[in-house]
Amino acid sequence: MSPLKKTIPEFLTHLKSLPISKIATNSVLTICVGNESADMDSIASAITFSYCQYIYNEISNSEEKEKNGLNIPIIDIPREDLNLRRDVIYVLEKLKITEEELFFIEDLKSLKEHVPYGTKVNSYLVDNNDTPKNLKNYIDNVIGIIDHHFDVKKHIDAEPRIVKVSGSCSSLVFNYWYEKLQGDREVVMNIAPLLMGAFLIDTSNMERKVESSDKLAIKRCQDVLDHAANEVSAQGLQDTRVFYKEMKSRKNDIKGFSVSDILKKDYKQFNFQGKGTKGLEIGLSSIVKRMSWLFNEHDGEAEFIKQCKKFQTERGLNVLVLLTSWRKAGDSHRELVMLGDPNVLCKLIDRVSEKLQLQKFSGKLEEGVAMFKQLNVEATRKQVVPYLEEAYSKLEG
Ligand SMILES: [Mn+2]
């Protein structure tokens, strides 16, 4: 076996200990970022990518090492918002990674302030194929992409540029590095909890959206875990059912959160371009409880909607969309709620209604609120966003 390599927490501590001159070399600071929802998959993908790059550099010759350099995994939210992601916290605890060892938007800002004048920020994007809007002002070049979202065909020269259907992006990141590192057993052991965490959440414990990339990654990972059944680091991962249940119950635990916390916990914002000159600023929150639960917990429908409108104003949104999903007796359920200008809502709904099989159950469209059951339960935000964007792109005026 090769000499012991750094674990992920050791790698992160190492990064935090380095002087800025070692982090930004040759006038370049390289980072790796997931998407702004900062869910399990995005965080797992970014940490895995940066960690594997580091290990790869360590075993490469000095020329190669110099060429690749380090990259810093950035989580695209403010530090204080990590606590809203209880499933992520659970997996990080398993890995003995603490919040202080991670890098958030503030950390990128601080790094950028401290690098020598003229330093460029190059970024790898994972779980995302266009520069996240929160970080637009910090990133100069996109140099590599691994993602499983709709391909917006930007950054065509990125290397690697892997954009394909996969249950979780972490599977694609894992496979990419598994091949480059020739299946290094120790590295697989170290990243296994991140891969398993993201994969199990994204595929609902392998019941939905499992693609060939996921099957390959899990097989590779399980083969290593099976051979290490007695090792501490492999424990708790063999029984995926238990691991999934633990994560899921934490992910679904949003009791006690404010409405604003619920809305920003799994949130993405876009600017859609239409035929007119004006773009549409649209925010989409994925929520793990149904609307009736939210109304109950937050002083009724009127008060909940009032808080949503406040959030909408604070973020300068023309449209706010809530996508709720939950499971009951083994069946999936979804709702889609839209807030915004009645005229725009009406046209958008008209154009996506059939694809999403929307069935109105509450809200007054003339007051700018419409609530639907979404009978097409397979469509997650990954599909809803391009549907709405296409609908908006065809609107007149
Ligand atoms: Mn993802």
UniProtKB/TrEMBL annotation:
Instruction: Name a single GO cellular component.
Output: cytoplasm
Which stretches make up the DHHA2 domain? 244-392
Whether Translocase counts among this entry's keywords is no
Q: Which UniProt keywords apply?
A: Hydrolase, Manganese, Metal-binding
**Cofactor needs:** Mn(2+)
Which InterPro entries does the annotation name?
DDH_dom (IPR001667), DHH_sf (IPR038763), DHHA2 (IPR004097), DHHA2_dom_sf (IPR038222)
Q: Name one GO molecular function term.
A: metal ion binding
| Alphabetized PANTHER family for the sequence | BNIP - RELATED, EG:152A3.5 PROTEIN (FBGN0003116_PN PROTEIN)
Q: What's the name of the protein?
A: DHHA2 domain-containing protein
Gene designation per UniProt: SMKI08G2430
